[in-house]
Design goal:
The complex is a heterodimer of chains A (about 650) and B (about 210). Chain A has about 650 residues and is mainly α. Among the domains of chain A are: about 260 residues, no CATH class; about 50 residues, no CATH class. Helix content of chain A is about 70%, strand content about 0%. Chain A has a two-stranded antiparallel sheet. In chain A, strands 3-4 form a two-stranded antiparallel sheet. Classes of the chains: A mainly alpha (about 650), B mainly alpha (about 210).
Chain lengths: ~650, ~210
């Protein structure tokens, strides 16, 4: 426990020395964060290697329940990405968020606080501590999102985030209160058999799903996620997308662990939500021009994949198919880790691009692979992994889920899991299209603007964290056996007597496949290299422009034209907004074309609804006089009313 | 001194506070009431508990020493007019205060108290002081007199707490003191800021800040 607590303290205090140091504060903070990560990951690995489960207990009378913190295998599994991303983000932030951007000390302080809240949250075993850490995490993230509060869009993103996270917390408070009523204690732990199928159990489950789903960004209630991720500094986006939204998944996983007999419809709901989040998430990502918004929508997509895995596992648990449960849960948990690795990598690489070009708009980039080769390689690695292609880690977790779906098909009377397979395949294909678009537009071709042409490679201190994350992606992708036993310990708490998922998934086969592919790729590259060297080509020739005179860089395929076929095809779900002027006559006037894909729920449903609502609420403005005494009078009247009401 | 005498004195202070027209005098009265607050638990014979004795001493020190010091500083830094400058006239204030005191006597009679607590004047006095504090907060214009109102309000809450003082954890009581201290502190800052921004401590100017 002492290692864990040390890690917590170091993370919480990492920003404090920087307040008093005139220079090098960022390095000190990053160093402390690294120390915290080493301590915490050490503690987590100890648990995952089968060591004793450390816990912290209080004297029983203080909070009515004794357990406070329990670092079990699930907590340890989630703790690793938290600390890894926090440490990488802290080092990345040293050069990324310097004085020029404003409030670097404040950002470091809150970043440390947010990390501490996350560390506390994963191991919280007491309801109040859980809610406290949850709230601390929400507020910390709010402050980080609103760092650049001089921009109106940032303020809007921060407000949307604050409102939705508090809505979620409200649901959680309700759910935990119901739970405490049943369990008779504030300790979080196993629930009685039969509770899940009762009416109260259903209410609790739905409240939990809204509360945790809002944080995780499940599709119909994902509204805060894209604007907040776009507005936050990139290393914060990496932490938020990599681990903060996973805390919603952590909650769901905990819930699954507590319930011994989940009804079948829970799993079906998970599958439905997962399919919708996955497919629509990636479809909306296709329509984005903003690099960070695009990545944010991909987080929703990956949450969908995780939910698909959890859904398969739940169905396995309900129907006592332990192999299916093991594969589903293992896939989901492994994807939690994998997604935090490659999404962290993508956000850091994307942040370097934004840092170098000064814009988040893909249409203003281009040709960056030449100026920023390392960043480009990092982004490509992340893209490869997120598309679920071997030999990287995204493939391994999706492999588990695919295997689970196939196994479900073998065991069931009618093949419902074909839907899961189709959804996974569709998500993978669309993700590939989307990252072909993102990588191609940003890094290939020629620069579209002078700013893109003047881009420079990111400093080494920003590249190093990316290298760490990319290395982890490759390691898990090629040698998944290294995490197999840890994964099996993490899922052991989720069901009874689950078989070893690594054996079910034929992990050595994955290694063979990955190595074969890697060798093939290396061979191909060598062959191409040799071919190129044998016939010298003048280096600085433009791409052949089909004979057009003066083909400007802007005549390249844009991100929107690349994705147009798919976006128009999915018009029924995406509702893209297109403003175009008809070009008429032989000598047409200059015309503008503009297209963007607004968010379905936020911009099309909630925004108009709230606007309408606020018109009605304007009537209440008479009560807002602005006079302090009048407000105090309201308090007095309320007090009097309550007193008299109590007496009468 | 019997505790009832001190409680009666507290209620009389309420009336004087409402009727006074001078800022200085209002502050003196609030400080006087604060010291009474510190003395009441001693008069109730609770001084035998060390933590209550300590609390009473701290209350006297803060309310009788530190808060007047803060007030004097604020008065020196900010040139405040000597009048209380009420929204509601003194006579009406006095009548409202009387009505509040009457109401609190009725309410205190009807309130369902915890079994075992002896009905004393403590409850009506607490409620009356609470109302008086609110009345001052609502009806006075300058920021400084609002701080006075806040102090009186806090005294009311403190009196209510005395009812349970033997069972109430020290934590809660020190919480009240801390709250009070922070309240005065923040108000001090607010006063300075209002003064700097509007060149007056009239809280009415704050209405310009609403959307």
């Amino acid at each position: 426990m002492s290692l864990y607590l040390l890690s917590l303290l170091l993370a919480a205090g990492s920003g404090i020395p920087g307040l008093f140091l005139r220079r090098r504060g960022a390095e000190v903070a990053a160093g402390l964060m690294t120390a915290s990560a080493l301590a915490g990951i050490g503690a987590a690995l100890g648990v995952l290697a089968g060591g004793p489960v450390p816990s912290l207990r209080l004297p029983a009378l203080a909070l009515t329940s004794p357990s406070l913190l329990v670092l079990d295998a699930i907590a340890a599994w989630f703790l690793i990405p938290v600390l890894l991303l926090a440490a990488c983000g802290a080092w990345y932030g040293v050069r990324y968020w310097e004085d020029a951007h404003g409030h670097p000390r404040w950002v470091r302080l809150v970043f440390g606080g947010l990390t501490a809240a996350l560390i506390l949250l994963v191991a919280a075993a007491h309801t109040w501590l859980f809610l406290l850490a949850w709230e601390a995490m929400a507020i910390g993230a709010f402050f980080l999102v609103s760092t650049e509060d001089r921009l109106p869009e940032t303020r809007r993103a921060a407000w949307i985030y604050l409102v939705s996270t508090h809505t979620g917390t409200l649901c959680l408070i309700g759910a935990f209160a119901l739970l405490a009523g049943v369990a008779g204690t504030w300790d979080l732990g196993a629930l009685p058999r039969g509770f899940a199928s009762s009416r109260l159990g259903t209410q609790t489950f739905l409240l939990f799903m809204v509360g945790f789903g809002l944080k995780a960004g499940v599709m119909p209630i994902h509204i805060w996620l894209p604007p907040a991720h776009a507005a936050a500094p990139s290393h914060v986006s990496a932490l938020m997308s990599g681990v903060l939204i996973k805390m919603g998944i952590l909650g769901m996983v905990r819930l699954i662990a507590w319930v011994p007999d989940p009804p079948l419809w829970w799993g079906a709901l998970f599958l439905g939500l997962g399919g919708v989040s996955g497919i629509l998430g990636v479809a909306f990502a296709l329509g984005q021009h903003d690099l960070k918004r695009l990545l944010a929508y991909h987080s929703i997509e990956n949450i969908g994949i995780i939910l698909l895995g959890l859904g398969l596992g739940l169905i396995g648990k309900s129907t006592s198919q332990s192999a299916l449960a093991a594969l589903g849960f293992a896939g989901a948990l492994l994807h939690v880790l994998n997604h935090s690795l490659f999404k962290g990598l993508l956000f850091l690489a994307g942040g370097s691009v934004v840092h170098a070009t000064g814009t988040r708009n893909l249409e203003r980039m281009g040709g960056l692979a030449k100026a920023m080769p390392w960043t480009s390689a990092a982004f490509l690695t992340g893209s490869w992994a997120i598309c679920g292609l071997p030999p990287l880690n995204g493939f391994v977790s999706e492999w588990f889920i695919y295997l689970g779906a196939f196994r479900a098909m073998a065991g069931a009377r009618w093949p419902w899991s074909v839907g899961v397979l189709a959804a996974l395949a569709l998500i993978g294909a669309l993700a590939l299209a989307c990252f072909a678009k993102a990588y191609g537009t940003a890094f290939l071709g020629t620069p579209r603007t002078p700013a893109a042409a003047a881009a420079h490679e990111a400093p080494r201190m920003m590249l190093l964290p990316m290298a760490v994350l990319a290395g982890a992606c490759v390691l898990i992708g090629v040698f998944p056996m290294v995490i197999a036993s840890a994964l099996d310990r993490a899922i052991a708490g989720l069901g009874q007597a689950l078989p070893a998922s690594s054996r079910l998934a034929h992990l050595p086969l994955v290694t063979v496949l990955a190595l074969t592919l890697a060798l093939l790729a290396l061979g191909l590259a060598r062959w191409a290299w040799a071919g190129r060297r044998s016939e010298p080509v003048p280096a600085e020739l433009p791409t052949w422009d089909c004979g057009y005179a003066e083909a400007l860089p802007r005549a390249q395929y844009t991100a929107s034209s690349f994705a147009d076929g798919l976006v128009t095809g999915a018009r029924w779900a995406l509702f893209p907004k297109v403003h175009e002027a008809q070009v008429q006559g032989p000598f047409p006037e200059p015309a503008r074309f503009e297209s963007h894909v607004p968010d379905l729920v936020l911009d099309r449903v909630l925004d108009p609804a709230f606007r309408l609502g606020s018109r009605g609420l304007a009537l209440l403005h008479v009560f807002q006089t602005g006079q302090l005494p009048v407000y105090l009078l309201y308090v007095l009247l309320t007090l009097l009313f309550l007193l008299i009401w109590m007496v009468v | 001194m019997s505790p009832d005498f001190l409680i009666a004195l507290t209620m009389l202070t309420n009336f004087t506070l409402v009727a006074t027209s001078r800022v200085n005098k209002a502050i003196q009265l609030a400080v006087f009431q604060g010291i009474l607050m510190g003395l009441i638990p001693l008069a109730m014979g609770l001084g035998k508990h060390t933590h209550i004795l300590l609390l009473a001493l701290v209350a006297i020190a803060v309310k009788g020493g530190f808060i007047p010091y803060l007030f004097r500083r604020a008065l020196r830094q900010v040139k405040i007019r000597r009048e209380v400058d009420p929204y509601v006239g003194y006579t009406v204030s006095l009548m409202l205060c009387a009505a509040g005191t009457g109401l609190s006597l009725v309410l205190a009679h009807a309130l369902p108290l915890k079994a075992g607590t002896t009905p004393t004047f403590l409850v009506p006095a607490a409620l009356a002081t609470l109302f008086t504090g609110f009345l001052l907060l609502v009806s006075r214009r300058t920021a400084l007199t609002q701080v006075v109102g806040y102090l009186v309000l806090e005294n009311g809450i403190y009196l209510f707490g005395l009812l349970l003082v033997e069972e109430m954890p020290v934590l809660v009581e020190t919480g009240i003191l801390l709250d009070l201290f922070v309240g005065v502190f923040v108000m001090g800052i607010v006063i300075n800021h209002i003064h700097m921004t509007f060149d007056s401590t009239d809280t009415g100017f704050l209405a310009e800040l609403k959307d």
